[in-house]
Design brief:
Blueprint: E1 14-22, H1 28-41, E2 45-46, E3 51-53, H2 54-58, E4 69-74, E5 77-82, H3 86-99, E6 103-106, E7 133-135, E8 142-148, E9 152-159, E10 166-176, E11 190-201, E12 204-208
Antiparallel strand pairs: 1-9, 2-8, 3-7, 4-5, 6-7, 8-9, 10-11, 11-12
Length: 209
């Protein structure tokens, strides 16, 4: 895990990319966890060819580290555990870095869709087991900013010059009916989600991955 300590001059910085998710449906305990994670992430820098590691920065979502029990979903059930809501932070960051051309080193999906990002664009975390790691492939250092309001969570990436290429992310969903019938429990149908990242130089499509 490497996070650079190089300080960028605010007068020279430009906005590279920004991504927001809604927190309007989140309760106060989840919002507290989101705010604590935002404090830890706001202002970090990521140097060229270095790895951004969510868990190494935010740490374990424990009571000892200041996190509180928040609502999380396992399959079709809601439970409460310390750090509940942090997956929205990691998912918001995941989308920001995807749109900025970062390379996926480690990412895990949820067991079911989440409300704050489209299917296939989430990134769940579980300290010590599931992490979000992304590599900066560009030849410049970026500074990450994090902001939380009453309605949204926003991450932005700043650098010293614009990227030579731009990125777009598209998803396709295919629904599958599950061959399960149990009266005591209902199940949602399954989905296959295909995620494509397109890389452009100007209006020319260079690559779809």
């Amino acid at each position: 895990f490497f996070i650079g300590l190089q300080v960028l001059s605010a007068s020279e910085e430009i906005l590279i990319q920004s991504f927001s998710t809604s927190i309007e449906k989140q309760n106060l305990d989840v919002r507290r966890n989101l705010s604590l994670a935002v404090e830890k992430l706001n202002g970090i820098t990521i140097e060229p060819n270095k790895v951004f590691s969510f868990s190494d920065i935010v740490g374990e979502a424990s009571i000892q580290n200041g996190f509180v029990a928040g609502r999380v979903f396992y399959w079709n059930e809601a439970i409460y555990e310390p750090g509940g809501g942090l997956c929205q932070v990691s998912s918001t960051l995941y989308n920001l870095l995807l749109l900025s051309g970062f390379v996926i080193k480690e990412r895990h999906k949820h067991s079911q869709p989440v409300s704050y990002v489209p299917m296939g664009l989430d990134a769940t975390i579980f300290y010590g087991k599931k992490n979000l790691k992304m590599v900066n492939p560009h030849n410049q250092t970026f500074r990450l900013t994090a902001e939380i309001t009453d309605t949204s969570l926003t991450f932005s990436l700043y650098g010293n010059y614009t990227l030579a290429e731009r990125y777009e992310v598209e998803t396709e969903e295919e629904e599958h009916e599950l061959p399960i019938a149990k009266k005591e429990r209902s199940y949602r149908n399954a989905y296959s989600v295909y995620v494509y990242r397109k890389r452009y130089r100007g209006e020319n499509l260079l690559e779809t991955s």
